[in-house]
Amino acid sequence: MRGETKGRRQSGNAPKERAAAAQQSRDPVENFEKWKIKYSRTKSRVKQQRKRNKKPEWQVERDNIGRLLNKYSEMNVQDAVKFSDFPLSKKTIGGLLGAQYRQPTEIQRQTVGFALRGRDVLGAAKTGSGKTLAFLVPVLECLYRQQWTAEDGLGALIISPTRELAYQTYEVLRKVGKNHEFSAGLIIGGKDLQNESERIHRTNIIVCTPGRLLQHMDETCTFHASNLQILVLDEADRILDMGFAETLNAIVENLPRTRQTLLFSATQTKSVKDLARLSLKDPEYVWVHEKAKFSTPATLEQSYVVCELHQKVDLLFSFMRSHLQKKVIVFFACCKEVQYLYRVFCRLRPGIPVLALHGKQQQMKRVEVYDDFVRKKAAVLFATDIAARGLDFPAVNWVLQYDCPEDANTYIHRVGRTARYKEGGEALLILLPSEEKAMLEQLQERKVPISRIQVNPKKLSSVQQKLEAFLAQEKEQKERAQRCFVSYLRSVYLMKNKDIFDVFQLKLPEYARSLGLAMAPKVRFLNKARQQRPGGGAGDSDEELESFRAQLSGSKPGEQASEEDAGGGGDDSSDSDDGEEPGSSAVSLLGQGAHEDEDDDGDLAFLTVKRRDVFEQEGCRFEEEGKAGGENEDEKTTPTKKAEKESKFKEAKKVMKRKLRVNTKMAFTDDGEVVQQWPPIQRAAVPAPDEEETSGINMDEARERLRREDQEFDKEEYRRKVKEKHREKRLKEKAARREASKRHLQESNAGSADESEEELVAYLGGSDDGEEFDPSTLPDPDRHRDSEQDSVSSERGVRKRSRGGSSSDSGEDSAPAPKKKARGREAAGPEALDTGLSLAEDEELVLHLLGHGS
Ligand code: ADP
Ligand code: MG
């Protein structure tokens, strides 16, 4: 702009100067030269003068800020139609416009004014209504007003309940605040702590999850928050709830009291106690949809279906098969369900990419999945409640709640992942018959419009047999299924609302079978819990039950788990599902995300026995014990003892005591009838001696037998692994050969066959969080080669016909030269492929291709 003005002035003065110069001499060239010298002197004089008059930048900004502040008192938010109607800095307006935000949404219009004036605000508005900008704009303006610099340290703190939400908010902040010079940082678990520690003290705006922030407050000596101007809690009710209680209290202790506080959520807290914890000063409560008929977006269509627990897998599969072009999020109750069902659904090849997001994934994987799902046009994301709040995935068509949410609030947040910002969306809730009544009451109370739909049972495709087959093939898969089973039951058991969640109403054998398991794994805590029920046998006291529950959920009774319990905060393996926050994880277990912070070993402890395949009959014991009211010695041990790993000796002792034949697999109904016999998936390597002949326990024999079994298992395992390695190697070699041959075929325009879409989709979906590579997900090289040949020959066939069906020989002879060449190669086959390279070069090529493939 300045450059253009200068240009106009220059051309405007020039004729006058030139006329004056012309009076001194008649030589136009000489005059022109004189004029040029004079003009350049004038120009530099003007420049110098302007420089002297020019205000320093800081002073210009100060004047601007003064003008803005004057406007604060007279601003009328009711009339604000555009963001520029607010007294905002040019930098913020520029950032908003650059990100295509022109007009404020209702929550932004109603809260930005209060927040600019420094008031504490409690903002509530439906999901997808633009709450993020409602706090980001005041944050930027607050620091701008004070001309915050790196030396001032932390000025604004934005706390989110999950890493994904923090990441998303950080990205919006970067976009909208790009014209400001503040430094901003994303402080979430799963990242390099050291790296964060080095920068955190110079960061002006921090977007974080509570646990990681507290960790820095505790461990990073250079970091302090004593200058903090503004604190924001996004999803405030979640951050203020039990799960984050201690972490948040500890954080708030480190913050100055004279700060501004903004709380936002779709389900806002009104609890005076909560607000007192944050020492809010006369907060402004803004609830834009208070009078709205419904608490969910008007563009959201909601329905529910009632089905039995064992029908859910089929229902999900059928749903996916009938929504192949959609973007869907499926919510599950726990990580183990997501882990297991994600794997088997990938193998079932539903025809749509499947992704999984849960708290047990590595941070890199979580970000990768998040980005992947953002990009994809059609995909199904299996997720736990880490994806329930705040996430703004674009264009999600469906939210399917596979498991009943903890409460109506969780329901509202889950369905809020679709129908965002004026878009449409659909939501389907799956309820068990036992959950229907109480859940619907809650939803009605919270003004959620939902109607029941029926599913035609004939349209359900059963996948049970396929799952059984997968489980028979892979031991790991079977273990995952068992963990899924136990974890789900535990999640139901730990739910607070017993009107909705009653674990004793679940039909366990059917549920186990629907997961592909032959029989229900033993779930010890259920036996214990069964005893606590009225009439369920000699019960422990309430405190004991509470203590037992706390143990189940991984915390000490009545208190939050310490950092140590949660694995030191930065440890991914101990991630709670709501993020990674040390300290937050365990208590959140009592709520929705309860079951998420258990680790694999924890789960195994609830399974039958450590080596299920040896003592498979333990699976039967689950039902047996149910019948007997849990009269075995397990029930007498304390919870602490229960957590201990059982020794082989103990296992052997128990088996013998029960006088069951080792390796005999039976399931019993409550009446004691044998309902099923299942051949062992993995038999005991060493046959047991005839137990019937031994009265009492022959410990030496049992010990020796277990030792030999160990050896056998190890050998077997080793053999299996070697075999697998060989198979993988062979596959890779084949794939490399196929690649080379494909390239040649392409070169010669012979028309190579593309990988089928289905295979591609299954392969993409099939990859998992850095775990073992499953060679079976590769397209079969042999089949692929066949299909290449087929495609070439079919092309040939078409051409032959177009030439009037002449004999094949004559047809081929008359084919154009390049085609002939291609056929020649094809006839020779990939083995006889001449790459034109030496043997060593060939090998190098293969290695290179392998490197790409893996
Ligand atoms: P909430 O936090 O209320 O669930 P978000 O802040 O995530 O909602 O915003 C939901 C969507 O609306 C986002 O995609 C965001 O880009 C969009 N959005 C927010 N404010 C505006 C606005 N003023 N103009 C246009 N789009 C907006
Ligand atoms: Mg939000």
UniProtKB/TrEMBL annotation:
Biased composition (Basic residues): 720-729
Disordered, as annotated region: 1-34, 550-588, 617-652, 671-841
Keywords: ATP-binding, Helicase, Hydrolase, Nucleotide-binding, RNA-binding
Biased composition (Acidic residues): 561-581
Bilayer-spanning residue ranges: none
Stretches with biased composition (Basic and acidic residues): 700-710, 730-746
Domain of life: Eukaryota
Reactions catalysed: ATP + H2O = ADP + phosphate + H(+)
Entry EC no(s): 3.6.4.13
Boundaries of every DEAD-box RNA helicase Q domain copy: 81-109
SUPFAM superfamilies: P-loop containing nucleoside triphosphate hydrolases (SSF52540)
Residues annotated as domain Helicase C-terminal: 312-464
Helicase ATP-binding domain boundaries: 112-286
One GO molecular-function entry: ATP binding
Gene3D superfamilies: P-loop containing nucleotide triphosphate hydrolases
InterPro entries: DEAD/DEAH_box_helicase_dom (IPR011545), Helicase_ATP-bd (IPR014001), Helicase_C-like (IPR001650), P-loop_NTPase (IPR027417), RNA-helicase_DEAD-box_CS (IPR000629), RNA_helicase_DEAD_Q_motif (IPR014014), SPB4-like_CTE (IPR025313)
Similarity remark: Belongs to the DEAD box helicase family. DDX10/DBP4 subfamily.
Domain notes: The Q motif is unique to and characteristic of the DEAD box family of RNA helicases and controls ATP binding and hydrolysis.
Function: RNA helicase.
Name of the protein in its database record: ATP-dependent RNA helicase
Species this chain originates from: Scleropages formosus
